[in-house]
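**Tokenised fold:**
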Amino acid sequence: MTTNEDSTRYAPEHAPRLAWAKLAPEVYKAMIKLDTAARQGLDPKLFELVKIRASQINKCAFCLDMHTKDALAAGETVERVVQLAAWDESRHFYTAKEAAALELTEAVTVLTDGFVPDEVYARAAEQFEEAELAQLIAAIATINAWNRFGVSTRMVAGHYTPQAHAH
């Protein structure tokens, strides 16, 4: 753990606001099933890149901790994970398919205009077969739901280790 090894250097770790998974266990189980269903047919590295990018936008520290560790454990490079926050400026780190997925992730995650632009959707549709695109949209929607649980209940980052995990 790197969060509080030296209390003179780091801020104290905050406590979570609410143990939502324990208090709403059926919702938690349904989210796990949704996550499992959403990942079907998607490349595992792409799936983690999408989860990291949405979690960056939503500022979900818990999910960032989990999904960066999972991505690295799955063989993703540190360089690509680090560049993800600025993927549009460093497109040469990503395939056209990954870039389209990241662009769609941003559009679905930030719905301030109330819609996903047609050109963003079209670029994703060029890179993904329809069934895979449906799975990608499900994955983006699912990580956004996880992020909202994590951010609103202030789930604590830094304690996750990759292995069999919940989401």
